Amino acid sequence: xxxxxxxxxxxxxxxxxxxxxxxxxxxxxxxxxxxxxxxxxxxxxxxxxxxxxxxxxxxxxxxxxxxxxxxxxxxxxxxxxxxxxxxxxxxxxxxxxxxxxxxxxxxxxxxxxxxxxxxxxxxxxxxxxxxxxxxxxxxxxxxxxxxxxxxxxxxxxxxxxxxxxxxxxxxxxxxxxxxxxxxxxxxxxxxxxxxxxxxxxxxxxxxxxxxxxxxxxxxxxxxxxxxxxxxxxxxxxxxxxxxxxxxxxxxxxxxxxx
Length: 258
Prior knowledge:
Blueprint: H1 3-15, E1 19-24, H2 28-39, E2 44-50, H3 56-69, E3 72-77, H4 84-87, H5 93-110, E4 116-119, H6 132-139, H7 145-148, H8 153-159, H9 161-165, H10 176-191, E5 198-202, E6 205-209, H11 215-218, H12 223-233, E7 238-241
Parallel strand pairs: 1-2, 1-4, 2-3, 6-7
Antiparallel strand pairs: 5-6
């Protein structure tokens, strides 16, 4: 069974006749789950958590991607800023952030009188890391179809390859190595709240497209040095900041092809 079929089978088994609420951010992992749920023929709702911590550009990008997939998006106010544990910004901040999201989703589903299943974009490679958000998911019975299907990060990247491949110039051969470089840089940016962003591959140079409002942060130490090291670790020798800002292209996942 190929990757797409495995994931769709996992989603159908978990959802059965229930409505699937996908905790959606616009990132690669949750986008693949969302696309697979739509392709599986499951009644699917993409729930985008909205709070003061979500950048306007990231919010717009998430809506654009979901629209291209053909998924319905509903925004939910998560209000994690009201939680002292989140504001403390300790090592377990993600636990409180995800708890607020999952509690909000469950409360929303309860008002609609239909059985529901909540999907997240966790994959097996996440399980070995310190991720307090996973604890919040397990406590609430949230389902991770990528884990159930045995997907690791490489599997997710394989299904999302056309999305990442758009970062490689036309005429240049796309390879797993190039995609891994791109993903490593974009994952670093996402984890550090520099998002939405694109890491464009130009041989030894990675050209970063980010919202202009974030320019000052990325060129200011200590983050500038951390970003440079992350890009070099990914295999790039030089880092360029595109002064044109973010120039989002279209997303075309194999999962949503007709």
